[in-house]
Amino acid sequence: MGTNALFDTRTIQAAEAGMIAPIARWCECLHGCAPFRDALRALAAAINGEAAAVCRVSTGRGRASGSVFFDAAAGEGPPLDRSFARSVLGGYLDKAKPGLIWYKSMSDQEGDPALDRFHAARRLAELAVIPLSSGKRHTDFLELHFASRPAAVQQALLNIISDTLVRTWTNRSPGLYTEACLSERRLRRNDGIEAHLLSMENPAQLSRAEYRVCVLLSKGQPAKRVQTDLGISKSTLRTHLRNIYAKTRTRNLTELVYHLVSVDTFAGQSPRRGTAA
User: For residue 42, how far is the Cα from the chain centroid?
Assistant: First the structure.
């Protein structure tokens, strides 16, 4: 492969290796060993996605009859709370081949004002839709939103993993997705929040930056490494930590890390619409 190629074999191999853990998480969730949101979170992070959803869309009507969402920064704008598969596939919605990737930017469908408003409000630029199944009554889709159009490596990764996503979805344990959708509905109806600090519910109402600090701390990284990984100054990290302490009602780094790695839940205040997680 020449030096002018879009990407070289080593780049793809390294990126593909980074997909092993997210795919494993996806498989775990499809057999009841991990929450659906955790799998969506892992997939989105691996390909630099900002939001992700698995949506079951009824055949003919095109309406989602069940969905599970992950949204990395819903607190900074309207949250992802619906399927946009029809916006991209249009008349192909009911007969799209599982595993084939459809992009908003490459769609010949007339623009959907709702999708355009959502992307504009969240500063998103692209949506990739992957049909996971195709049936007489409904079709299941994986939907991935991006802040910018996926680069060549990201597109290659999606092509590589799409067949695996479809195959494992077909072999999932029965009833798990339906239960996940019911749990999502119960969660959205709940007026209060009591959940783990790093859960999708974001009970402490952490900002996106604060949430990322907490994620790195939960993985055992020291404050200096967190600062380096996020590319922020020492004073900025101190500000984030000061705000996190206040929101999580902790007094120092040791106490915060304890709560981050603990299985205990956190009783937050009345939630805003959407989460930072």
Answer: 7
Share of the chain above pLDDT 90, in %: 48
| 110, 87 Cβ separation under 8 angstroms | no
Q: Would you say residue 79 has pLDDT above 90?
A: no
In a domain, 263, yes or no: yes
Per residue in 168-217, pLDDT (tens digit) is: 999 999 888 888 887 777 666 554 445 678 876 677 888 889 989 999 99
Rounded Cα distance, 223 and 197, in Å: 18
Sign of CA dihedral 255, 42, 200, 274: positive
Beta bridge partners of 103: 128
pLDDT tens digits along 119-177: 999 999 999 999 999 887 889 999 999 999 999 889 999 999 999 999 999 999 988 88
Tell whether 173 and 213 lie within a shared domain. Answer: no
Residue 227 shares a structural domain with residue 114: no
Beta-carbon contacts of 277 under 8 Å, excluding residues fewer than 6 positions away, are 41, 70, 71, 72, 198, 199, 200, 201, 202, 206, 211
Domain residue limits at 237: 194-267
> CATH no. for residue 198?
1.10.10.10
* Domain-ending residue, one of 170, 189, 208: 189
> Do the Cβ atoms of 150 and 129 come closer than 8 Å?
no
CA distance 158 to 150: 10
What type of residue sits at position 117? R
Interatomic CA distance for residues 2 and 5, integer angstroms: 6
